[in-house]
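hi!! sorry for the late reply, been swamped w classes. u asked for the two structures so here they r. pasted raw, havent cleaned anything up. first the sequence of the first protein and right below it the tokens
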Amino acid sequence: MTKGTLIALVDGSKYSESVCHYAAWIAKRTKSTIKIYHVLGRREGADRQDLSGAIELGARTHILDELSELDARRAKLTQARGRAILEDAQAIIEADGVTVETRLRQGDLVETVLAKEDTGDMIVIGKRGEAADFAKLHLGSNLERVIRSSSKPVFVANREFKPVTSVLIAFDGGQSSMKAVDYLARNPLLAGLPVTLAFAGSDTTDIRKSLEDARATLAAGGFDAQILIQAGKADAALGKLVEDGNYDLVVMGAYGHSRIRHLIIGSTTSEMIRTCKVPILLMR
């Protein structure tokens, strides 16, 4: 990713500062620039609806005028808050020594990402947004949509930034995990860092061969990867490895199955994002 571009998504959440620091860390290692986006939702909740359009027939003109002015003030305040968020993010990233541009957009977050992803090489997003769990159009609730929809790697930042010194690749032998291995072997992002290839499940001949093939691919990229096989359910076993092994970053394939299967039996990807206290780099 020489002279590439990162797309970093920020809002007013506590995760945005971490997004900025991780974006700067990635940019410095990959010689990239950063474009920060703050996306204003089309509707910011029922209490921010266009009140002037809800006036009933016969209402006094001065009330209509006052509500129209209120709508205009709200719009200006929302825009001003968005610009302030971007200015803070820009200051954090520039303090880390990286070139950055800011973009304020209005609309659906995922639609904005898909419209702009061709201009970037990776998307950096916080695990949860400022309105996670009670509003639909914010980063947290849109995270799975971004990951499933984008063709680019997605870096999911945790709450607190920590320099990455050790990496765990969650490997299952599938296409997306092989893509992750190939990506890392060709990319300067993790150059020089210790890497562990980890598989959760039964130790079989086929799995051993897949792991050795993946290790050979990483070796061609300059990595001396270790191999770990951990019995148990993938999310629990891998989560324990991360916690016990002091890894600072998890790399894994994302959503290898359909949404219908996800609804029936759950998703290792979602569970890892939910429970891991370190950032996760996801490949589809």
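now the second protein. again sequence first, tokens right under
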Amino acid sequence: MKSANQGFSLIELLIASSVGLIAIGVVGSVFLSGYQAANKRSLELLLQQDVNDAFRLIKEDVLRAGYVLSGASSLKLSGASNVVYVNTANNCLAYAYHSPDGLRYNEVMYNKQDEKLVYRSTDDEITALNACSLSRVLSYSLIYDKQISVNQFDIENKPISSASATSQLIKITLAAHLKNDDAVNTAKSIQIKTRNWHNPISTASATR
């Protein structure tokens, strides 16, 4: 019979230590897996939110395109045939509208070299001849470019005509991924029907 005050043997200590290390390893592995899953989910949400925010800004802006305070006609860029000038070769939209601050000219453009979706708003006149040029200074990226790369920004433009008005149906496809993890990616599309602001009686276009 063992003595009541006899200590653990070396073998018993080793076994207990091994069991403890295994338990700690299992718990640590579960915790790490959970942390990695939560971190990946937060990055996925960041990506989805950025893309959704970019689409919302583009849609709200395009729906303003052509608006003139007088309401007498639709505002088009000089040389453009529609209220939204679409350059599919440069993956770019350009348009103008009156805002409370005055006449605004805007561009949304894909910079393929830097994988950025850029946005520029100015009161300097933009025409169909000088719009959508990468050499122009662009204000900022619509997507958080420190963590996200845009690998696709395609624009399809379809004219819509009726007896009294002409409009456009613009389809935009945007795909993006995290810079440090290509597996975290998204691709979305939206369709925007541009508004026709002009009075049906008048076919004149407002120009600056």
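hope this helps!! also noticed smth abt the second:
Residues 10-64 form the longest helix (55 residues).
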